[in-house]
Write a structure and sequence with these properties.
By secondary structure, the chain is mostly helical. The chain is built from ten helices and four strands.
Length: 307
């Protein structure tokens, strides 16, 4: 009987320990949403918290859009991804919206000759973005804002947004296009030391120095030339896909040497402030969705449109 008493005592102690140190915390545990710290990074949300996040975000989600490409000899391949998501995250921290993981499925055929470039087919690029938007909508997101960090995506994204009118959608896709701010532009211009900035120059080098300094190597910027080679000089009046390669075969346009953390912080903050204003408007204003629905109705019966 003494042996059994010993086992009963051990079991009782174990149960007491479990109740005191395990069950109680679990019973009192709340989700991150209930604790008041609902993540805005899409990938960090639990499934139950995702439902709360969609409501809190006003059904709004940012897709930080970049690319994987060479950025001179001194910046990381994912520079555009890193910058666009940094801007999105800083804005979402002040005006809650969901922020999708870094998205790098864009247009970058002009850099296929450089190591590290990932260039998907046109069909894949289009379908993947369309299906991503469709899936976000299926999960309750009705306002999708693309924050683009790669200049080579611009024409594609403008057309993608326009093409959403081709078939009825229950969501809207918007491309963040910050307006010019003369006062802020002048302030940043005074901080610059270079005048030519197209790719991996002083500006982009500065932004990476501002938030990922361990990835920026301005001391290597002179290892290759970022000068315009002007190899199509005299050929005018046409657009051709080879124009960028003709001018900047090193996939580097500018000079990253004089970059500074202060310039990068100023450039990022300027975009963050503009994005916050956009988020505040889009979250609370449904006119885009309402007008889009009205358009779809009219497009199905064009002869009934009042003339």
């Amino acid at each position: 009987m003494g042996r059994y008493s010993k086992w009963i005592s051990l079991i009782s102690s174990a149960v007491f320990f479990w109740c005191l140190f395990v069950a109680q915390p679990l019973r009192g545990q709340t989700s991150s949403a209930e604790a008041g710290s609902l993540p805005f990074r899409y990938e960090e949300l639990t499934a139950p918290d995702f439902v709360k996040a969609v409501e809190k975000a006003g059904k709004t989600c940012i897709i930080p859009f970049g690319i994987l490409e060479k950025h001179g000899p001194h910046l990381p391949l994912g520079t555009d991804l890193l910058d666009s998501r940094q801007i999105a995250l800083k804005a979402a921290k002040q005006e809650y919206v969901l922020v999708f993981p870094e998205y790098y499925f864009g247009q970058i055929y002009e850099a296929k000759h450089q190591p590290g470039t990932i260039a998907y087919s046109p069909t894949t690029v289009w379908n993947l973005l369309q299906e991503t938007c469709d899936e976000l909508s299926r999960n309750g997101i009705k306002k999708i804002i693309i924050v683009n960090g790669h200049g080579g995506n611009t024409n594609f994204l403008n057309y993608f947004c326009q093409a959403q009118l081709a078939a009825r959608k229950d969501y809207a896709v918007m491309l963040f296009t910050p307006p010019r701010d003369p006062e802020n532009d002048a302030r940043i211009r005074q901080m610059r030391k270079t005048t030519m900035e197209m790719h991996a120059g002083e500006g982009e080098t500065s932004t990476i120095m501002a938030h990922r300094p361990e990835l920026a190597h301005p001391e290597r910027a002179k290892q290759q030339s970022g000068e315009d080679q002007a190899r199509m000089k005299g050929i005018e009046g046409i657009y051709t896909a080879i124009w960028w390669y003709a001018r900047f075969p090193n996939h580097y346009a500018g000079d990253g040497t004089p970059a500074t953390k202060n310039l990068g912080e100023a450039m990022i903050q300027a975009q963050v402030e503009q994005l916050i204003k956009v988020l505040q408007t889009v979250k609370r204003d449904d006119r885009i969705l309402e007008l889009q629905e009205r358009f779809y109705n009219g497009a199905e019966k064009p002869l009934e449109t009042v003339q």
